[in-house]
Amino acid sequence: MKLIILRHGEAGRATTDFDRNLTHNGRSEVAAISQASLASLKGANAFVSPYVRAQQTLHEVSQHVVLNRQTTLPIITPDDSPEAVLEWLTSQPESDFPILLVSHQPMVSRLISLLVDGGFLGYYPMSTASMTVLEADVWAKGLANVVSQTHVADLQ
Fold first, then answer.
1. What's this model's pTM, rounded to 2 decimal places?
2. Is the distance from CB of 21 to CB of 29 less than 8 angstroms?
């Protein structure tokens, strides 16, 4: 099963963290990573944080690739528990994969570390609009493999 983890694009300032919007550069970052990752993203079931910048990121992705379904998932905000996401992943039917999660730091790095290394000691940097593709037969601590990790800076 394939899990695609995408960090939102560059965001500006706002009165609350929830309300931060993507910058023009952030939209460009997401467009670039989407176009470079069409094969991985095509037909994925997308789950997105309720935060504005994540919602805008998913909208931008959907302008470049056909996704199967788009759903807001409230447990993937910046400070949520990677363990809760792992528990959620285990409840998803195999037929729902590939799954795309559009989320934030530190959630994305911590989730990757939990899935690949079994804890939070792994180092998986995720700059804005970075994408990591994982595969696993079963979603559990330490059982996933990193298939690829792409940063927008690598595309230029």
1. 0.97
2. no
> Alpha helices, DSSP H only, in 42-130?
52-62, 82-90, 107-117
For residue range 33-80, what is the model confidence (pLDDT) as tens digits? 999 999 999 999 999 999 999 999 999 999 999 999 999 999 999 999
With tokens 């700059």, the residue in question is 127
The answer to whether the beta carbons of residues 115 and 134 sit under 8 Å apart is yes
**CA–CA gap between residue 4 and residue 133 (Å, rounded):** 4
- Tokens for 78? 């910046």
**Looking at domain 2-132, what is its CATH homologous superfamily?**
Phosphoglycerate mutase-like (3.40.50.1240)
Nearest of 135, 132, 139, 138 to residue 154 by alpha carbon: 132
Cβ-based neighbour number of residue 151 at 10 Å? 18
- How many angstroms separate the CA atoms of 48 and 35, rounded? 19
Give domain limits for the chain: 2-132
Query: Residue with structure tokens 């993507």?
Result: 22
**Would you call 118 helix, strand, or coil by DSSP?**
coil
